[in-house]
Design goal:
Largest sheet: 7 strands, mixed
Mean pLDDT: 88
CATH topology of the largest domain: Spore Coat Polysaccharide Biosynthesis Protein SpsA, Chain A
Strand content: 15-25%
Order of helices and strands: EEEHEHEHEHEEEEHHEHHEEEHEEHE
Structural class: alpha+beta
Number of domains: 2
CATH superfamily of the largest domain: Spore Coat Polysaccharide Biosynthesis Protein SpsA, Chain A
Low-confidence stretches: 1-5, 359-368, 400-404
Bound molecules: zinc ion
Helix content: 25-40%
Length: about 400
């Protein structure tokens, strides 16, 4: 899997909590699933994104957490005492301040092991694509009681996060909750830390307040709504630990479960053409006009696991997709790439047009919104181009085409 851009990303993993409801002396993040600590699972997910740095904020049993995770190649920041999520970022600030001004920071939690790498990748892409100062990962849940809610304005844009106890009666019905997981532009985040105040009943510094500070500074605050709320479940009790273990076991048994590429195969609105064993489709998320995926029907997670004939077939379809893009958009070039499968992702060949001046190389595709088109518009545009090419006597017409 490519990183969304060549700019730097740092992950900050909050792992200082004690976890009193685990009924155990062990720090919460040291509880294990499958012989790997909860924090270890989170670090594995973050590592698969090839971020520039991973920083873990430790507190309870800090020495043991450090000892166990030093082999993960992470840096540590000490949070003692623990004065909230905003405070956790403050103690890591000296490490973060060495980053260049255009770096971004992904905030994760050592006790949220079910997050998928593909979800974080999409969050990071969306954050960069929209040029947000911060992008918050949210989910809609049936029982939002106890969670901070996402308050949107009349246009549906982010207004603020309001804690459960502070909701007015009209807001109690809001089911969209804050996961606490964010992609921040690092410089505005660091600037916002100085504005955080512990003037609440808990006497803590809340990272949620940084979102309001960043919004008030005039930067966009994005909201990325997650499809599967289970991914953001935190582990607070032995029962939740057992549930999470079961989820991870199911994922191992069926790696295609929740696979974005597998789901794309049946998206008639996005598939452009079907061939034996593979489809050419519009990139699903984040949607970007002209960005195409060539998706093998089989859920294979490494290019090397494809047969030589299958690999050649995919590349010939990529060449076909390039011809469509050239006919549809007349780009100066097209970029071709495929995900490496390091995150257990379905192998997909990606094709995206580029123009001089867009500095758009494959890892940067999401940073450039090529054309202000809807998926329907792009679909029509490309299928018309395909049909023009076919009428011109080109071969390699699809077996069954989508209807424009
Ligand atoms: Zn798949």
């Amino acid at each position: 899997m490519t990183t969304p851009t060549d700019r730097r990303w740092v992950s900050l993993v909050l792992a200082a909590g004690k976890g009193t409801r685990m009924n155990s002396d062990l720090a919460k993040v040291l509880h294990e699933i499958d012989g790997r600590s909860l924090l270890g699972h989170v670090l594995d997910t973050a590592a698969s994104l090839h971020l520039s740095r991973m920083i873990v904020v430790v507190g309870h049993q800090a020495e043991e957490v450090r000892r166990r995770h030093t082999p993960d190649g992470v840096e540590f920041a000490m949070q003692q005492p623990q004065l909230g999520t905003g405070h956790a970022v403050m103690v890591a600030a000296p490490l973060l301040e060495t980053e260049p001004p255009d770096a971004d920071c992904l905030v994760l939690y050592g006790d949220v092991p079910l997050l998928r790498a593909s979800t974080l990748h999409e969050l990071m892409e969306r954050h960069r694509l929209d040029g947000n100062g911060v992008t918050v990962l949210t989910a809609e849940v049936d029982d939002p009681k106890g969670y901070g809610r996402i308050i949107r304005d009349a246009r549906g844009d982010f207004r603020c996060i309001t804690e459960d106890r502070d909701l007015d009666p009209a807001q109690r019905g809001i089911r969209e909750i804050n996961s606490g997981i964010y992609a921040f532009q690092l410089a505005p985040l660091l600037r916002a830390l100085g504005s955080l105040r512990a003037d609440n009943s808990q006497k803590e510094y809340y990272l949620t307040d940084a979102l309001t500070v960043i919004r008030d500074a005039g930067l966009p605050v994005g909201v990325f709504l997650l499809g599967d709320p289970q991914e953001i479940s935190g582990i607070n009790t032995p029962a939740q630990l057992a549930d999470a273990a079961a989820v991870l076991a199911r994922r191992r048994a069926d790696p295609a479960e929740g696979c974005l590429a597998c789901a794309l195969l049946s998206r008639e609105d996005l598939v452009l053409a079907r061939y034996p064993g593979a489809v050419i489709a519009l990139a699903p998320r984040p949607y970007n006009a002209g960005h195409l995926w060539i998706v093998p029907e089989q859920h294979l997670v490494s290019w090397e696991s494809l047969s030589p004939a299958a690999a050649e077939h995919l590349l010939s379809l990529a060449a076909e997709a390039e011809r469509w893009l050239e006919e549809a958009y007349h780009p100066q070039a097209t970029n071709l790439g495929y995900n490496s499968g390091t995150a257990g992702e379905h192998v997909v060949v990606q094709v995206v047009p580029r123009w001089t001046g867009d500095a758009n190389f494959m890892p940067l595709f999401a940073g450039v919104n090529i054309l202000p088109e809807t998926p329907e518009g792009t679909r029509r545009h490309i299928l018309e181009a395909r049909d023009r090419l076919a009428a011109g006597g080109r071969d390699a017409a699809p077996e069954t085409g989508g209807t424009p």
